[in-house]
């Protein structure tokens, strides 16, 4: 009687920033469901622990790493932990980000501008830099990085100069790193999201300022659709890459915005 040898594939390791709530939480949970081992990163330990508890997976498949992505030393420390625990990283989802108050540029405090740049852009740069270092050195070499862009990477909302500028810059970061990553089997892509239903977008249902000066309620979509798209992008072989993709609520005014 012959026996069949079952070979368990090695765990795929993912890091999701801003994983305690919203899009980051939804994507981290979806990656767990798809069989990934996931590092939940964010500023608040309580939300990270709560998100992991909600997943119901074994403790060795998910762990929380409290990290401020604007702090270069903290980011380096996070990647050191990943290297020590797992020896590699297969996916980085640069999701951490903040909105700024909707005010005209001449009323925007410099501190608010810097906060947006530090979190939305510099945070992604710092994590990508460390991911490149790890992915280039690990064996097998390579990995995937997905950046959370935005509809605002294409078209702004009124009075959103800081957020819009950082998201346009994110597209440049994606393109540059996709080019530079080729030689090292690192695939870099971006998902641009419009009106996913999370706590951060509840105001959209109540009414958002439009370019014509009106205020109108906007359609939103289930955040699960974003998570499914991220899981699909992550599941591709490194020989294929979704460089840019846009997923949005069908009824939102993006196409006719402006």
Report on the architecture of this protein.
By secondary structure, the chain is an alpha/beta fold. The protein has a single domain, classed as NAD(P)-binding Rossmann-like Domain (Rossmann fold). It is built from seven helices and eleven strands. The protein has a seven-stranded parallel sheet with strand order 3-2-1-4-5-6-11, with helices on both faces. Helix 1 links the parallel strand 1 and strand 2. Helix 1 crosses helix 7, helix 3 packs parallel to helix 4 and helix 4 runs parallel beside helix 5. The radius of gyration is 19 Å and the shape is globular. It starts with 12 loop residues before the first strand and ends in a 10-residue tail after the last strand.
Short précis:
41% of the residues lie in helices and 19% in strands. The protein is of the alpha/beta class and 258 residues long. The protein has a single domain (13-248), classed as 3-Layer(aba) Sandwich (Rossmann fold).
